[in-house]
């Protein structure tokens, strides 16, 4: 039987080519995490996000995700306001004067993207165990991630699976062990990051759909 559940496609295909996105993932339940992170990256790139505008950081468990998202968002703002060229401006990498033969060729200065993040994807996999740990972490992490996005104004995509069994988690990463491989939700999170990143830029400029 078909289902009525699920997301409908946006009216336009969002262009991520100008966006900078961070993926922060936990390392608990790594098999599932790896598939979700890979799925998110595939869709970010498919929507045009450039490889050097995708930052991936890991933390031990899902409980650490909110603080990590908050710090990474704040760090990128500081990075954006410090001018890398100013820091290198005093250095002379050769100029016009001849270089002695013994002097090593200086490395090329690779421009680092130093823009704030347009969106952050927080990825974790919580699988219920025998104790109440699961309930406490699910509840606190989901509230805290919501708080981070409202406090910072940067979209935080909720990529935290809260599964009752291993199989539920595997199926939500497209790794189902039965006939039903399931769907990789990481892909949806990548698309959501591009869509929300584009919306947030537009809305913050006071531009709205007619
Ligand atoms: C402790 C714990 C447990 C029991 N289960 C999970 C889990 O299923 N998924 C996950 O991401 N993290 C788990 N953790 C670790 C906590 O999130 C956290 O890293 C530790 O309690 C240290 O703060």
TrEMBL record:
GO terms for molecular function: 6,7-dimethyl-8-ribityllumazine synthase activity. The keyword Transferase applies. It comes from the Eukaryota. It catalyses: (2S)-2-hydroxy-3-oxobutyl phosphate + 5-amino-6-(D-ribitylamino)uracil = 6,7-dimethyl-8-(1-D-ribityl)lumazine + phosphate + 2 H2O + H(+). One of its GO terms (biological process) is riboflavin biosynthetic process. Keywords: Riboflavin biosynthesis, Transferase. Pathway: Cofactor biosynthesis; riboflavin biosynthesis; riboflavin from 2-hydroxy-3-oxobutyl phosphate and 5-amino-6-(D-ribitylamino)uracil: step 1/2. It is an enzyme of class 2 (transferase). Its EC number is 2.5.1.78. The keyword Mitochondrion does not apply. GO terms for cellular component: mitochondrial intermembrane space; riboflavin synthase complex. Belongs to the DMRL synthase family. Catalyzes the formation of 6,7-dimethyl-8-ribityllumazine by condensation of 5-amino-6-(D-ribitylamino)uracil with 3,4-dihydroxy-2-butanone 4-phosphate. This is the penultimate step in the biosynthesis of riboflavin. This is 6,7-dimethyl-8-ribityllumazine synthase.
